[in-house]
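B., you asked whether I could sanity-check this one before it goes into the benchmark set. Here's the sequence:
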Amino acid sequence: MRTLSTALFVGIFAIASVSCGADTSTQTAESMSPSQSESTTDFDATLVGGGEINLQSELQKSPVALWFWAPG
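And here's what the prediction gave me:
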């Protein structure tokens, strides 16, 4: 029983220590080149009520919050 609890503790500790590491794969806007930054914000999206919105033109006017929703 003691061996099982020790193995369980070591397993949980290993998983917790690996999963709490820093994510170095994400890029900030400052680390991206200007062409990368512009291409990620230059797209059109269809609005729920109809019509389209261009993210780049909206970002020039004011801050934009995107809400992605998928019915489940």
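One thing to flag: The beta strands are 44-46, 52-54. Otherwise nothing jumped out at me.
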